[in-house]
Amino acid sequence: MASQTASPGPTRGHRKREKTRRQLIAAGLRVLAAKGEALAVSDVTHEADVANGTFYNYFAGREALVDALAEQLLLNLAETTAREPHEDPAVRFAVASGRVLHRAAEDPTWGRVVLRLVDRPGVYGNVDRYLREDLAAGFDAGRFESGPDDATLDQVLGLLFMTIRRIVAGRARPDAPERAVERGLRALGLVPEEAREIADAALASAREPTPA
Protein backbone atom coordinates (compact mmCIF):
# COMPACT_ATOMS: atom_id res chain seq x y z
CA MET A 1 0.00 0.00 0.00
CA ALA A 2 1.48 3.35 -1.03
CA SER A 3 2.22 5.70 1.81
CA GLN A 4 0.30 8.94 1.91
CA THR A 5 2.19 12.17 2.32
CA ALA A 6 0.77 15.45 3.41
CA SER A 7 0.27 18.05 0.72
CA PRO A 8 2.97 20.69 0.85
CA GLY A 9 1.88 24.00 2.29
CA PRO A 10 2.15 27.32 0.53
CA THR A 11 5.68 28.14 -0.52
CA ARG A 12 7.50 31.21 0.76
CA GLY A 13 7.05 32.83 -2.65
CA HIS A 14 3.31 32.14 -2.62
CA ARG A 15 2.95 33.61 0.87
CA LYS A 16 4.87 36.70 -0.23
CA ARG A 17 2.60 37.14 -3.28
CA GLU A 18 -0.52 36.81 -1.12
CA LYS A 19 0.87 39.32 1.35
CA THR A 20 1.62 41.82 -1.42
CA ARG A 21 -1.84 41.39 -2.94
CA ARG A 22 -3.47 41.98 0.47
CA GLN A 23 -1.21 45.04 0.86
CA LEU A 24 -2.44 46.43 -2.47
CA ILE A 25 -6.10 45.72 -1.62
CA ALA A 26 -5.75 47.43 1.76
CA ALA A 27 -4.07 50.43 0.15
CA GLY A 28 -6.75 50.54 -2.54
CA LEU A 29 -9.50 50.62 0.08
CA ARG A 30 -7.80 53.53 1.86
CA VAL A 31 -7.35 55.46 -1.38
CA LEU A 32 -10.93 54.72 -2.42
CA ALA A 33 -12.17 56.09 0.88
CA ALA A 34 -10.11 59.25 0.43
CA LYS A 35 -10.50 59.92 -3.30
CA GLY A 36 -13.54 57.94 -4.39
CA GLU A 37 -13.73 57.18 -8.09
CA ALA A 38 -10.79 59.48 -8.78
CA LEU A 39 -8.58 56.62 -7.55
CA ALA A 40 -5.51 56.08 -9.75
CA VAL A 41 -3.03 53.21 -9.89
CA SER A 42 -0.20 55.57 -8.90
CA ASP A 43 -2.15 56.57 -5.77
CA VAL A 44 -2.47 52.93 -4.74
CA THR A 45 1.15 51.99 -5.38
CA HIS A 46 2.31 55.06 -3.45
CA GLU A 47 0.03 54.18 -0.54
CA ALA A 48 1.18 50.54 -0.61
CA ASP A 49 4.83 51.59 -1.01
CA VAL A 50 5.39 49.33 -4.03
CA ALA A 51 6.57 50.00 -7.58
CA ASN A 52 4.06 50.51 -10.38
CA GLY A 53 5.42 47.40 -12.08
CA THR A 54 4.62 45.34 -8.99
CA PHE A 55 0.98 46.42 -9.22
CA TYR A 56 0.65 44.93 -12.71
CA ASN A 57 1.91 41.58 -11.46
CA TYR A 58 -1.38 41.33 -9.56
CA PHE A 59 -3.94 43.35 -11.50
CA ALA A 60 -4.41 43.97 -15.22
CA GLY A 61 -5.20 47.60 -14.52
CA ARG A 62 -7.28 50.05 -12.53
CA GLU A 63 -10.62 48.42 -13.38
CA ALA A 64 -9.43 45.00 -12.24
CA LEU A 65 -8.37 46.52 -8.93
CA VAL A 66 -11.72 48.30 -8.48
CA ASP A 67 -13.54 45.01 -9.09
CA ALA A 68 -11.39 43.38 -6.39
CA LEU A 69 -12.08 46.28 -4.02
CA ALA A 70 -15.82 45.96 -4.63
CA GLU A 71 -15.78 42.28 -3.78
CA GLN A 72 -13.72 42.94 -0.65
CA LEU A 73 -16.06 45.71 0.46
CA LEU A 74 -19.09 43.44 0.18
CA LEU A 75 -17.29 40.58 1.88
CA ASN A 76 -16.24 42.82 4.77
CA LEU A 77 -19.83 43.96 5.23
CA ALA A 78 -21.19 40.41 4.93
CA GLU A 79 -18.79 39.18 7.59
CA THR A 80 -19.78 42.04 9.87
CA THR A 81 -23.50 41.43 9.51
CA ALA A 82 -22.94 37.69 10.01
CA ARG A 83 -22.02 38.59 13.59
CA GLU A 84 -25.36 40.29 14.22
CA PRO A 85 -26.58 38.97 17.60
CA HIS A 86 -30.29 38.71 16.71
CA GLU A 87 -31.77 35.24 17.11
CA ASP A 88 -34.78 35.92 14.88
CA PRO A 89 -33.70 35.18 11.28
CA ALA A 90 -36.13 37.82 9.99
CA VAL A 91 -34.48 40.50 12.12
CA ARG A 92 -31.01 39.32 11.13
CA PHE A 93 -31.94 39.52 7.47
CA ALA A 94 -33.47 42.97 7.91
CA VAL A 95 -30.50 44.40 9.79
CA ALA A 96 -27.98 42.94 7.32
CA SER A 97 -29.92 44.30 4.35
CA GLY A 98 -30.43 47.60 6.13
CA ARG A 99 -26.70 48.01 6.70
CA VAL A 100 -26.00 47.53 2.98
CA LEU A 101 -28.62 50.06 1.92
CA HIS A 102 -27.72 52.57 4.61
CA ARG A 103 -24.05 52.33 3.61
CA ALA A 104 -24.99 53.08 -0.01
CA ALA A 105 -27.06 56.08 1.08
CA GLU A 106 -24.25 57.42 3.26
CA ASP A 107 -21.48 56.69 0.75
CA PRO A 108 -22.68 56.69 -2.87
CA THR A 109 -19.13 55.97 -4.09
CA TRP A 110 -19.23 52.71 -2.14
CA GLY A 111 -22.61 51.96 -3.70
CA ARG A 112 -21.34 52.60 -7.23
CA VAL A 113 -18.34 50.35 -6.66
CA VAL A 114 -20.51 47.55 -5.29
CA LEU A 115 -22.78 47.75 -8.34
CA ARG A 116 -19.82 46.63 -10.44
CA LEU A 117 -20.50 43.14 -9.08
CA VAL A 118 -24.03 42.88 -10.44
CA ASP A 119 -23.13 41.89 -13.99
CA ARG A 120 -20.30 39.53 -13.09
CA PRO A 121 -21.68 35.97 -12.63
CA GLY A 122 -19.88 34.00 -9.97
CA VAL A 123 -17.99 36.96 -8.54
CA TYR A 124 -19.81 36.85 -5.22
CA GLY A 125 -17.75 33.98 -3.84
CA ASN A 126 -18.45 33.71 -0.13
CA VAL A 127 -20.64 36.82 -0.12
CA ASP A 128 -23.91 35.09 -0.96
CA ARG A 129 -23.09 32.26 1.47
CA TYR A 130 -24.08 34.45 4.41
CA LEU A 131 -27.41 35.33 2.80
CA ARG A 132 -28.11 31.69 1.95
CA GLU A 133 -27.42 30.73 5.56
CA ASP A 134 -29.87 33.35 6.83
CA LEU A 135 -32.53 32.28 4.33
CA ALA A 136 -32.07 28.65 5.33
CA ALA A 137 -32.32 29.53 9.04
CA GLY A 138 -35.47 31.53 8.43
CA PHE A 139 -37.07 28.74 6.42
CA ASP A 140 -36.14 26.06 8.99
CA ALA A 141 -37.54 28.23 11.79
CA GLY A 142 -40.80 28.73 9.90
CA ARG A 143 -40.21 32.46 9.56
CA PHE A 144 -39.76 32.42 5.78
CA GLU A 145 -41.89 30.68 3.19
CA SER A 146 -38.91 30.29 0.85
CA GLY A 147 -35.55 28.66 1.46
CA PRO A 148 -32.08 29.40 0.10
CA ASP A 149 -32.87 28.43 -3.49
CA ASP A 150 -31.43 30.38 -6.40
CA ALA A 151 -34.75 32.03 -7.30
CA THR A 152 -35.22 33.41 -3.79
CA LEU A 153 -31.61 34.55 -3.62
CA ASP A 154 -31.96 36.32 -6.98
CA GLN A 155 -35.19 37.97 -5.85
CA VAL A 156 -33.63 39.32 -2.66
CA LEU A 157 -30.34 40.40 -4.22
CA GLY A 158 -32.18 41.96 -7.16
CA LEU A 159 -34.26 44.06 -4.78
CA LEU A 160 -31.19 45.19 -2.85
CA PHE A 161 -29.12 46.03 -5.91
CA MET A 162 -31.92 47.88 -7.68
CA THR A 163 -32.48 49.94 -4.53
CA ILE A 164 -28.76 50.73 -4.38
CA ARG A 165 -28.89 51.75 -8.05
CA ARG A 166 -31.78 54.11 -7.33
CA ILE A 167 -30.00 55.54 -4.27
CA VAL A 168 -26.72 56.32 -6.02
CA ALA A 169 -28.59 57.81 -8.98
CA GLY A 170 -30.30 60.23 -6.58
CA ARG A 171 -33.75 58.91 -7.44
CA ALA A 172 -34.57 57.27 -4.11
CA ARG A 173 -36.95 58.56 -1.49
CA PRO A 174 -35.48 59.10 2.00
CA ASP A 175 -37.27 55.99 3.27
CA ALA A 176 -36.18 53.80 0.33
CA PRO A 177 -34.01 51.49 2.51
CA GLU A 178 -36.86 50.88 4.97
CA ARG A 179 -39.37 50.18 2.24
CA ALA A 180 -37.02 47.89 0.34
CA VAL A 181 -36.32 45.82 3.46
CA GLU A 182 -40.04 45.72 4.22
CA ARG A 183 -40.77 44.49 0.69
CA GLY A 184 -38.07 41.85 1.00
CA LEU A 185 -39.54 40.54 4.24
CA ARG A 186 -43.02 40.43 2.71
CA ALA A 187 -41.65 38.51 -0.27
CA LEU A 188 -40.20 36.00 2.16
CA GLY A 189 -43.60 35.48 3.76
CA LEU A 190 -44.00 37.93 6.63
CA VAL A 191 -47.33 39.72 6.99
CA PRO A 192 -47.25 43.43 6.04
CA GLU A 193 -47.61 44.82 9.55
CA GLU A 194 -44.76 42.76 11.00
CA ALA A 195 -42.58 43.34 7.94
CA ARG A 196 -42.92 47.11 8.30
CA GLU A 197 -42.24 47.04 12.05
CA ILE A 198 -39.11 44.91 11.66
CA ALA A 199 -37.84 46.95 8.70
CA ASP A 200 -38.20 50.28 10.50
CA ALA A 201 -36.46 48.92 13.61
CA ALA A 202 -33.74 47.30 11.52
CA LEU A 203 -32.86 50.52 9.72
CA ALA A 204 -32.69 52.36 13.02
CA SER A 205 -30.22 49.68 14.15
CA ALA A 206 -28.33 49.85 10.85
CA ARG A 207 -27.63 53.52 11.39
CA GLU A 208 -25.78 52.67 14.58
CA PRO A 209 -22.02 51.88 14.34
CA THR A 210 -21.30 48.32 13.18
CA PRO A 211 -20.03 45.91 15.85
CA ALA A 212 -16.25 45.82 16.25
- The arrangement of helices and strands along the chain is HHHHHHHHHH
Query: Helix count, per DSSP?
Result: 10
Number of structural domains: 2
CATH topology annotation of the largest domain: Tetracycline Repressor, domain 2
Instruction: Tell me the quaternary state.
Output: single chain
Give the integer mean of the pLDDT values. Answer: 85
User: How much β-strand is present in the residues?
Assistant: under 5%
CATH homology superfamily name of the largest domain? Tetracycline Repressor, domain 2
Brief write-up:
This protein is mainly alpha-helical.
Write the layout of secondary structure elements.
Layout lengths: L11 H24 L5 H8 L3 H4 L6 H20 L7 H18 L1 H7 L12 H14 L9 H19 L7 H12 L4 H15 L6
Helix pairs in contact: 1-2, 4-7, 5-6, 5-7, 5-8, 5-9, 5-10, 6-8, 8-9, 9-10
